Amino acid sequence: MPIFVSLLKAPTNSLNRIDDSYTKIVVVRDNVLPWIDEKGVQYINIEDFLLEKINEL
Question: What does pTM read for this prediction?
Fold first, then answer.
């Protein structure tokens, strides 16, 4: 298992316990490609997240 993925397991445990229909997004500082894990949690780096929100304005 890559180090990045293993580091994200603990912070996402709380997200996985919430049973609702909201999008769960983890914003990371590292430069990673956006991806969605098998439980539907979306991972995106901070720059892409902010640029996406600016484009929505």
Answer: 0.69
- Provide mean pLDDT across the span 32-38: 87
- Checking phi first, is residue 37 left (phi over 0); if not, alpha (psi -120 to 50) or beta? beta
Question: Is 6 exposed, middle or buried, given 0-12, 13-18 or 19+ CB atoms closer than 10 A?
Answer: exposed
Tell me which residue has tokens 């769960």. Answer: 24
**pLDDT value of position 1:** 42
Query: What is the rounded distance in angstroms from the CA atom of residue 9 to the CA atom of residue 14?
Result: 10
